[in-house]
Amino acid sequence: EPEVTQTPSHQVTQMGQEVILRCVPISNHLYFYWYRQILGQKVEFLVSFYNNEISEKSEIFDDQFSVERPDGSNFTLKIRSTKLEDSAMYFCASSRGQVTNEKLFFGSGTQLSVL
Amino acid sequence: RKEVEQDPGPFNVPEGATVAFNCTYSNSASQSFFWYRQDCRKEPKLLMSVYSSGNEDGRFTAQLNRASQYISLLIRDSKLSDSATYLCVPYGGSQGNLIFGKGTKLSVKP
User: Fold this and answer.
1) In terms of Cα–Cα distance, which of A70, A76, A69, A60 is closest to A30?
2) Which of these, A74, A75, A77, lies nearest to A64 by C-alpha position?
3) Handedness of CA B88, B104, B45, A37 (dihedral sign)
4) How many other C-beta atoms can be found within 10 angstroms of the C-beta atom of residue B31?
5) How far is the CA of A73 from the CAs of A69, A77, A110, B14, B92, in angstroms?
6) Which residues of B touch A100 (CB under 8 A)?
7) Are A72 and A59 in contact (CB under 8 A)?
8) How would residue A115 be classed by pLDDT, with cut points 50, 70 and 90?
9) Residue A33 in contact with residue B96, Cβ under 8 Å?
10) Cβ–Cβ below 8 Å for A56 and B44
């Protein structure tokens, strides 16, 4: 089965530093997403991306966050100035079509630790 | 009221047992519903979609009651590999905005 791949699997950074989390969605998918999960908490939606623009974003996705699809294969999440509370597992996901009709595939996540 | 409410468990059951999970959701406009499973510190994986008429996939049966805003999952003949957290996930109505609950933890023992 095709996979969404995420790198790195673990990222440690100092508070205030910028981080970029990278994802390679499944090649024929058109919709891309970022979710996050703070340890012991529920999975939370951050942002969805389609046709080279943000489709929807949650309240969590403030000005410190940005997403980009710099080429035909990568999908990145940038956190401009990390805070301690940004420590979480970040999951990238993709789907071929809208999630009502198509399965959402998640990557295995990047564990971000902000010190 | 929370968007999704589930009994956190844990449900500790022996192999072969039948176990049922329930979930209530608050957004009456939700149109699509899913059950995901999540192993410890892993990504969520789609278990099954939930259809209005109820649906079955092998040992798993899902039911939806829109009037009560209630979803259920039944697992028959539990296997050790079914041990995981089961997440009830209504679709929030926008692209990709799946609303995850905290899930119900299942532990199947030999």
Assistant:
1) A69
2) A77
3) positive
4) 12
5) 7, 14, 18, 45, 27
6) 31-32, 91
7) no
8) very high
9) yes
10) no
pLDDT digits (tens, 9 = 90+) for A30-58: 999 999 999 999 999 999 999 999 999 99
Chain A residues in contact with B52 (beta carbon < 8 A): none
Per residue of chain B (110 residues), what is the pLDDT tens digit? 678 899 999 999 999 999 999 999 988 888 888 999 999 989 999 999 998 888 999 999 999 999 999 999 999 999 999 999 999 998 876 656 888 888 999 999 99
Which residues in chain B are contacts of A104 at CB distance < 8 A?
A: 46, 96, 98
Q: Are strands A5-7 and A53-57 parallel, antiparallel or unpaired?
A: unpaired
Amino acid found at B66 = R
Q: CA-to-CA distance for B34 and A74, rounded, in angstroms?
A: 27
pLDDT of residue B95: 57
The Cα A105–Cα A93 span in angstroms is 5
| Position A75 pLDDT exceeds 90 | yes
Are B46 and A104 inside 8 Å of each other by CB?
Answer: yes
Q: Which of A50, A56, A82, A86 is nearest to A69 (CA)?
A: A50
Contact B86, B21 (CB under 8 A): yes
